[in-house]
Amino acid sequence: MTKYFRDLLLAAILSITSLQALALDSQNLPDVDEGIVSISTVDPFKRVGYTVGDVIEREVTLTIKAPYKLVETSLPIVGYEKRYKGKVIGIELKEIQHSKVEHKDYATHQLKLAYQVFTNSVVAKNAALGPEYLQLVNTKNSKQLVKYRVPSLDIAVSPIAIFGQVKVENNMSTFLEPLLLKNDQEKTRLKLAAGALVLSLLALLYIFGKHAWLPRMGGNFAKTYRAIKKLPHNDEGLKQAVAAVHHAFNQTAKVSVFNGNVDEFLASNPNFLHIKNEISQFFGLSRQVYFEPSAVHSVGSNPTLWLLKFTKQCRDCERGLIPTTNRAGV
Amino acid sequence: MSDVQLADWRNHALTLESEVNKVVVGQQTPIRLITTSIFARGHVLLEGDVGVGKTTLLRAFTRGIGGGYQRIEGTIDLMPNDLVYHTYLGEDGKPHVSPGPLLMSGENLSVFFFNEINRARPQVHSLLLRVMAERSLSAFNTEHYFPHMIVFADRNQVEKEETFEIPSAARDRFMMEIPIVVPNDDAIMEALVFDTKFHNVDALVDTVKPDVLQFDELNAFSSVIQNSIEASDTLKRYALNLWKATKAPLDYGVKVSGVDMNRLVLSGASPRGMSMMLRAARVNAWLNNRNAVLPDDIHAVFHSTIAHRLVFSPVYEMRRTEIAREMLSGIVNAVAAP
């Protein structure tokens, strides 16, 4: 019961003192003893170049040790016009957010302050956020009110437009980076395009290069495919192409492959089972080209083109891929 | 001869094959090779163990070919004149001379079967060589001709006692040496043992349709085949490379396991052997309804026409069959066409 009355009495005292505090000018109060309040701030990196309308945010964290408590009515008032030497400085508090966490021996107050610039000038001029004066009351001695000064943050306000001749170099500041257009999207596109270009160049280098270096890419049929693409589209070119494909088969099988031992070749190279029919067609073409001109092959009217596609199929099989179907005469 | 006639003869040849395949089961490859040699007009040496069906096979073919069929058994005391005539005392008490197996059928002799040829003496081999090469014989002051004769001989490679190895010159006269082995198929093996139709060989051979071919037209038709079936330049080069490889297999990278290849081959295939190979390959192409020889046709007859002609160092002669098979397979694998 005693504790209840004591708290009630303290609340009444604080109410009265806060009303009195409104009447008091905080700047005239004595400073709080050193070590009672500790402060940390999160200030904007940009200190210069503000123009009318800019909003500047600042975060202040105060830790106040008992028995002192913050008089919350002394917090900065939104919209209050601050003056310096009787002249409105043109920087107003636009918004304040206050949160506190109380502990047994101390309390932490977090203030998020948003100031807005309402001044302009034809030349750059100094300005400041704050200072703000906060009142603290000693809960053990309700008549003892003290102040704590939240230090100001110096900034510079710039004109919206430049009048007259200005030497830019003299007005450059290390605190203000040049205004840049956002180009993130363009950068991403450029990187993608550069990547595609590099890959394309690698592919071209591989295709037209003499040697292959990727795994399963330098096979006999891959070389043959590149070689027969360069052959002329006539009878002599066709003969050379057929011979080249025979050579590739022989090298792949490590023995001479004929129509009679194709099944053995397929058994030892099952990747080629996908094109069993096409291999049979190839040996039919080879028979007509090299051994029996009167024989009829089944590869259509353009055997050179068919052979090129067949070699590509063989190359795919060699690489462990499933080749696309090669229709006769296409 | 028109393509129709070529096709007609092909049908006859395939019919003969089919007939023989009915009585000698599981021997499709030897039967195809013998058919090939009949149309290529080449003599055949059969090699195989005892009782594998060599004689039955030849009797079945003889029945299908038609013409005269004579047979003689090779024995150590067989003399050359036993092939030509034999003498006996007749009922009148006077000596008589009768024609021997070679002369008995006269010019109609189509098949002369020499059973176990390696049991006969070299003198007998010499006579046979002449008959095989020239298809003629001088006897009784007369020149006898056997224009339609094909010699089939067999030899038993298992027994070596009291045998005379056929010299390389004699072997070279045979177009083919065909191995006859017991089929691996269990069903066929079971049939050979339990099916009673295989127990009586005479009755079995009698089931073959007789005179499927006209034996006295085979020579002429053989020439037609040889002239009709073409060989391209690529194939000629391929055959030439095969020939060179039989002489110097190491030049083509051919190796045989456990053999010093530098010492192995004393003599490769002969020109006669290669020409016989190509004759047989042409027939094989014809049997497969082709107008030109392919490498596959050569492969079909390569072993049977070449293996017995190779002359190896004496140290390797005991393993001749095995080494020749591996070496020739290596050559086929190593030589490319085109």
From TrEMBL, chain A:
<protein>
    <recommendedName>
        <fullName>MxaA protein</fullName>
    </recommendedName>
</protein>
<keyword id="KW-0472">Membrane</keyword>
<keyword id="KW-0812">Transmembrane</keyword>
<feature type="transmembrane region" description="Helical">
    <location>
        <begin position="190"/>
        <end position="208"/>
    </location>
</feature>
<keyword id="KW-1133">Transmembrane helix</keyword>
<keyword id="KW-0732">Signal</keyword>
<feature type="signal peptide">
    <location>
        <begin position="1"/>
        <end position="23"/>
    </location>
</feature>
Automatic annotation (TrEMBL), chain B:
<dbReference type="InterPro" id="IPR011703">
    <property type="entry name" value="ATPase_AAA-3"/>
</dbReference>
<protein>
    <submittedName>
        <fullName>AAA family ATPase</fullName>
    </submittedName>
</protein>
<dbReference type="InterPro" id="IPR027417">
    <property type="entry name" value="P-loop_NTPase"/>
</dbReference>
<feature type="domain" description="ChlI/MoxR AAA lid">
    <location>
        <begin position="267"/>
        <end position="318"/>
    </location>
</feature>
<dbReference type="GO" id="GO:0016887">
    <property type="term" value="F:ATP hydrolysis activity"/>
</dbReference>
<dbReference type="Pfam" id="PF17863">
    <property type="entry name" value="AAA_lid_2"/>
</dbReference>
<dbReference type="InterPro" id="IPR001270">
    <property type="entry name" value="ClpA/B"/>
</dbReference>
<dbReference type="GO" id="GO:0005524">
    <property type="term" value="F:ATP binding"/>
</dbReference>
<dbReference type="Pfam" id="PF07726">
    <property type="entry name" value="AAA_3"/>
</dbReference>
<dbReference type="InterPro" id="IPR041628">
    <property type="entry name" value="ChlI/MoxR_AAA_lid"/>
</dbReference>
<feature type="domain" description="ATPase AAA-3">
    <location>
        <begin position="43"/>
        <end position="176"/>
    </location>
</feature>
<dbReference type="InterPro" id="IPR050764">
    <property type="entry name" value="CbbQ/NirQ/NorQ/GpvN"/>
</dbReference>
